[in-house]
Each structure stands twice: as structure tokens, then as C-alpha cells.
Amino acid sequence: MKSKIQPTSKEKLMREQDFIVSKTDKSGRITYGNRIFIEYSGYTAAELLGTQHNVIRHPDMPRGVFKFLWDTLGTEKECFAYVKNMAKDGSFYWVFANVTPDYDASKRVTGYFSVRRMPKRGAVDAMGDVYRAMLTEEQKAGPKDACTASLNWLVNVLTQKGVSYEEFILSL
Questions:
Q1: For the chain, does the N or the C end have fewer beta carbons within 10 angstroms?
Q2: pTM of whole model > 0.85?
Q3: Distance (Å, rounded) from C-alpha 59 to C-alpha 44?
Q4: Average pLDDT, stretch 49-68?
């Protein structure tokens, strides 16, 4: 489904009152998407359910961001991120995402719950610059070392600024 989609320059702006909600299983397959998720993604519920969540991954998003997200979720912590998603028609939309582990009654992780809302424009501009720099690092490193290279770049920048990833993201 995704490999045939060509990104366009058409941006869909989220409405301030909207929240995109989705749930996945532990491997990232979509098990639930609210009507706002369906609307912005451009897919039907039937097309989304059972599909890997990365079906909406925009090629402008560095792989290192998703490695960081999965590493954070692997420690059973929540993760915040600004994400550029791609809809079925190739258009894009930015979100401010909060992704958390979802637990069963025995306190075992059964999947992940994500709530996304309209991001601040200044944060989108700042993260666009960060993501372009991370993508450059990924391209220089090659596919095998791309994630590590872009994450190292980000960690170095944050260390120089004297802030953690979460402090940086929440300050935008």
C-alpha cells in the first residue's frame, strides 16, 4: 500500500480541537484508529486495521526518531515527539504525539496507545530543521548505521545545549 505513494507538498493542518488516537499491538500493527485518524490519514478503517503504523511514515522523518521512540517504549516509558505523517494521497500533516505503553490487568504491555494533537508552528519549524540534519547524518552513514548516526547527532546537540530529549521537546 505505502510503497506506491508519492509525497506531495500539500499540507493538511490539524484543527486545534482534534485529537488523533490510535492503538497498536506490540509489533506496531494498528488495532484501533479514531475517526480523526482515519480522516487525516486518508485510509479507511479497513485499510488501517492490521497494518503497520508506519504506513503513514513520511520519508522526511529520520529513522533514528523511530528507533528512539521504540527504545523508549521498550523501557515502558512514554515518549513525546513531533512527527510528520503522510496521508494516502501523499499530502502530509504534522502532529505532536504522546505514545504510551498499554497494559493488561496483569500489568503486562499489550501494545501502545498514541494521542496526537495539533503542534505549534514554531515547533514544527524547529523540528523540520532537526530532522533535515538527522536525515543528512543518516545518508552519510548509510542504511546499516543510519539510526545510530542520527541519534548520536541528536544526543550530541542536546548535550551541548545541556537538556534532555524530553526537556527539549516539551520546551518547543
A1: N
A2: yes
A3: 21
A4: 96
